[in-house]
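Renewal narrative, Specific Aim 1. Our central claim is that a sequence can be written position by position from structural information alone. The example that follows is taken directly from our test logs and has not been curated for this report. It begins with the structure tokens describing the chain, in the order in which they were read.
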């Protein structure tokens, strides 16, 4: 029996005497103490142990704030911190401190994903040796193996760009360096391959999983990832748009001169994206999360359709319908909106960064820029710059009445700019004067607090416990994942477990609407069963699916003017990605695929004047002057992270991402 220890030893000697180990060659050395390779396929128990150890190599997708493996919300501008340390690689990326020689927290993604790929290829090459696998067992192993291999490639593609495709190759050891030397595929080749593998995985994967298996992907997750990838592929930055030319015009594969990213626009890619999203919709097993209206639910504005959801908001509570799936109130396994979700320790832990330091035992150092606060609509769907008489917006004065609706307590005396806003604003944004119940603690001095961020406030610059980085410099924090019961200090304090929606049904609805909006003609897509589907810019279809997202939070649907104007609707859809998916790591990819990332990075970070007292100038729009706000990177190279220089040196045919060669 050939022991894995022998193989590892051979590889290490070979690597030392030749050109170094390629990450797609690495053998699973951490498995040394548990299995011999020949033992993996002796029975299905061993095989399943090997298979289900692979997911431990994928990071928590909810890790989008600190200790992240993706640039996340700091790199998208959705958050800002004064903390200067490796815990926040996304902030370091935004400051253009990442280099091919210093990838900080991002450095292990590429090698880990290729280790996943090798392990999956090991299973595919040897599964026939496992004699006690039933047909049903084999289908499960194949489905998840194909999925995890595709997901590993996906994780490389979205942050690092085109991948080195190995297909089913299980590379031999002890070969000459040239054996391992291979170029990267183009962006389209990478996307097409990953989607093909996800399609293959879906053939074997279950439609649903048990309660105890929540977090495992299903067929819908495979189809959802295909839809996400096809939307990326159709978008301007990867489909011959102006940003594709700006980012990638000169980026050609050194081995054959082929452009890594297409410089020719192909409208049919939008039809492919529409088809992929519509397939998930047509599965009929997902829907937006809603909570039934009760006596505490606020009355609808007159311009909001009062029919039952999804034709209106008459029978639902818009605040709880949105908020509860993030706060921990909703039962995650039963949430029909999660095409793929998982319990996330990262999400739970980073809620602490929103709580005041001295008052409520938090860390209080992650701030939200004014841009994202302003993006939320008024309660009747109007923009803050064109508010109605019934739901006015004003940056002058304070409210004289308190409100309690849907369990959300709005205190008297808050700035009028925080009054009359849509329900996602109250679900997501912690503003000065916001009420924090912290109901789980039994200590009265640690609960039911009005949190204020002015110089004389309860959570401002003077309340940092001696560290001036421990306050939100814009005067705003995120409350998206915070439940009324959550408390980080006080006797009996508890924080509810949190779930992160890796793919939400709302993403499929918005992706479908966006894809249709970009069609100027009619396109027919034929699926693998030979069934033809035709897609065009059908205004009724766009409204039907987009409006569900709006009605769920008691906002009006699209107007006839928006539906009739593709350019105007494009702006509305991009704003919806910003608002609906705030702090869910979708906006980072949105501004890259649409080619707006440089403009976003150039915008000043604005907030309230946290150097002033609450009633003496705090509620004044103020540009943040901290160096981290003033010196953010705006280079077009930041569309992708760089590939580690060590990897480039090991594989001469593998080109670096554009702009990162120095």
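The sequence written for that structure reads:
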């Amino acid at each position: 029996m050939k022991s894995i220890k022998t193989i590892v030893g051979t590889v290490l000697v070979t690597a030392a005497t030749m050109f170094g180990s390629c990450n797609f060659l690495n053998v699973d050395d951490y498995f040394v103490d548990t299995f011999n390779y020949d033992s993996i396929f002796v029975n299905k128990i061993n095989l399943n142990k090997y298979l289900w150890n692979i997911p431990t190599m994928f990071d928590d997708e909810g890790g989008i704030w600190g200790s992240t493996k993706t640039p996340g919300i700091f790199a998208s501008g959705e958050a800002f911190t004064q903390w200067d340390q490796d815990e926040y690689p996304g902030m370091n990326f935004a400051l253009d401190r990442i280099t091919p020689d210093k990838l900080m927290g991002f450095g292990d993604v590429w090698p880990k994903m290729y280790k996943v790929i090798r392990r999956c290829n090991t299973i595919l090459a040897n599964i026939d040796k496992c004699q006690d696998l039933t047909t049903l067992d084999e289908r499960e192993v194949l489905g998840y193996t194909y999925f995890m291999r595709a997901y590993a490639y996906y994780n490389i593609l979205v942050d690092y760009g085109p991948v080195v495709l190995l297909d089913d190759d299980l590379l031999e050891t002890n070969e000459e360096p040239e054996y391992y030397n291979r170029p990267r595929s183009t962006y389209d080749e990478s996307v097409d391959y990953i989607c093909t593998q996800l399609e293959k995985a879906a053939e074997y994967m279950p439609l649903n999983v048990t309660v105890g298996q929540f977090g495992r992907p299903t067929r819908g997750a495979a189809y959802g990832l295909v839809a996400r990838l096809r939307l990326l592929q159709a978008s301007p930055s990867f489909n011959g748009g102006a940003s594709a030319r700006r980012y990638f015009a000169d980026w050609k594969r050194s081995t054959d001169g082929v452009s890594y990213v297409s410089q020719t626009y192909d409208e049919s890619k939008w039809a492919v994206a529409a088809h992929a999203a519509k397939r998930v919709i047509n599965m009929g097993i997902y829907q937006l999360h809603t909570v039934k209206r009760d006596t505490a639910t606020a009355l609808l504005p007159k311009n909001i359709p009062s029919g039952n959801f999804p034709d209106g908001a008459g029978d639902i509570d818009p605040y709880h319908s949105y908020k509860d799936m993030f706060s921990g109130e909703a039962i995650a396994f039963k949430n029909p909106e999660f095409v793929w979700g998982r319990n996330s320790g990262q999400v739970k832990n980073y809620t602490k960064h929103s709580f005041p330091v001295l008052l409520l035992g938090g860390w209080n150092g992650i701030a939200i820029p004014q841009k994202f606060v302003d993006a939320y609509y008024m309660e009747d769907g109007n923009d803050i710059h064109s508010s109605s008489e019934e739901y006015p917006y004003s940056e002058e004065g304070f409210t004289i009445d308190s409100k309690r609706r849907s369990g959300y307590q709005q205190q008297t005396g808050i700035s009028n700019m925080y009054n009359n806003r849509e329900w996602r604003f109250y679900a997501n944004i912690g503003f000065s004067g916001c009420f924090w119940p912290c109901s789980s603690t039994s200590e009265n001095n640690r609960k039911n607090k009005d949190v204020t961020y002015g110089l004389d406030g309860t959570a401002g610059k003077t309340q940092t416990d001696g560290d001036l980085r421990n306050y939100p410099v814009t005067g705003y924090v995120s409350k998206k994942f915070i439940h009324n019961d959550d408390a980080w200090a006080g006797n009996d304090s508890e924080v509810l477990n949190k779930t992160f929606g890796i793919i939400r049904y709302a993403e499929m609805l918005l992706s479908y609407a966006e894809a249709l909006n970009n069609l100027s003609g009619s396109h027919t897509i034929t699926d693998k069963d030979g069934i033809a589907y035709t897609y065009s810019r059908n205004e009724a279809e766009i409204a039907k699916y987009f409006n569900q997202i709006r009605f769920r939070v008691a906002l009006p649907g699209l107007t006839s003017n928006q539906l009739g104007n593709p350019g105007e609707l494009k702006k509305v859809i991009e704003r919806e990605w910003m608002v609906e998916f705030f702090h869910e790591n979708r906006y980072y990819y949105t501004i890259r695929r649409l080619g707006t990332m440089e403009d976003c990075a150039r915008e000043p970070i604005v907030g309230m004047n946290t150097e002033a007292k609450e009633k003496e100038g705090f509620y004044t729009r103020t540009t943040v002057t901290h160096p981290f706000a003033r010196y953010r990177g705006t280079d077009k190279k930041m569309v992708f992270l760089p590939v580690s220089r060590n990897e480039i040196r090991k594989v001469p045919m593998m080109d670096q991402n554009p702009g990162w060669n120095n």
